[in-house]
Amino acid sequence: MNTTYVDNTRRREYTSARGITVTFLPLPPTIVEQIEVIYAQEVPRPEPPTYTEFALGGIEVVQAHNETTIKGDPEAEVAFDAYKKALAAWTDEVNTRLARYVQVNCVDFDLPESDDWIKRQEYAGLKVPDDPFDRRLYYLRTEFVGSQDDALNVLAIPMQLAMERSVDLVAAERFLRLGLERREAADEEGGGAVTKPTANVEDVKEANGDGVVGETADST
């Protein structure tokens, strides 16, 4: 596989392990938030169970439960476990919608003019979708992707291109994981919840290991 920047824009050509070339476009920085907002209107984001404690002066204060506060309280443990499962399902749907957005809006390519690829799929007993968007997604997943790296890069490169400065793909992957791990740690302490696998500038620096956001290793 190889990648090449196109003109002066943040567009990058990429050839998969199967020899098919596409052009990646940057992921709009606010799209995750927009997806969450829209989905929350359909299915409200799960909230953690709460408990009441008393502050000075006998004032009641409602707090969100976390992994620490539920210990020794069977009812709270059951409620918190249900909350985590509901949140995981909610977050999975957000991530599914994000992946669908990236594949439709951040991967530029033309379907082959010949329908030979469709005939090969159907000969193997597969059904190529008729809907034009579903067909593009299907082509990406069954014709373009030829390795685990390809599958990762379909999401990682558009995110990478959206950054102010590029980081190499290994750092980009660590960048996403660091952000998720840090938010999970914060949730453990404060009873909050992870909503998206994003990270901040400090995560980028840590991902690169030297505190400097670097250029892509595989761009030419």
Q: How many DSSP helices?
A: 7
The coarse silhouette is: elongated
Total strands:
6
Report the helical percentage: 40-55%
**Average residue-wise pLDDT:** 80
Protein structure class: alpha+beta
The largest beta-sheet arranges its strands as 1-2-3-6
Distance between the termini: 13 Å
- Which blocks of ≥5 consecutive residues have pLDDT under 50? 192-220
Order of helices and strands: EEEHEEHEHHHHH
Beta-strand content estimate: 5-15%
Oligomer: single chain
* Domain count: 3
> What does the radius of gyration come to?
22 Å
Q: Largest sheet, if any?
A: 4 strands, antiparallel
Fold blueprint:
Elements: E1 2-6, E2 11-15, E3 21-24, H1 31-42, E4 50-54, E5 60-64, H2 74-105, E6 107-108, H3 116-123, H4 132-144, H5 148-162, H6 169-190, H7 201-208
Helix pairs in contact: 1-2, 6-7
Report a brief summary of the structure.
The chain has 220 residues and is of the alpha+beta class. The chain contains 7 helices and 6 strands.
What structural keywords apply?
alpha+beta; two-stranded antiparallel sheet; 220 residues; elongated; 7 helices; four-stranded antiparallel β-sheet; 6 strands; single chain
Description:
With 220 residues, the chain is of the alpha+beta class. The chain has three domains: 1-27 and 106-162, no CATH class; 45-99, no CATH class; 163-220, no CATH class. 50% of the residues lie in helices and 12% in strands. The protein has seven helices and six strands. It has helices at residues 31-42, 74-105, 116-123, 132-144, 148-162, 169-190, 201-208; strands at residues 2-6, 11-15, 21-24, 50-54, 60-64, 107-108. It has a four-stranded antiparallel beta sheet with strand order 1-2-3-6. Strand 2 and strand 3 form a beta hairpin. Helix 1 (31-42) packs across helix 2 and helix 6 packs across helix 7. The longest helix has 32 residues, at 74-105. 20% of the residues are buried.
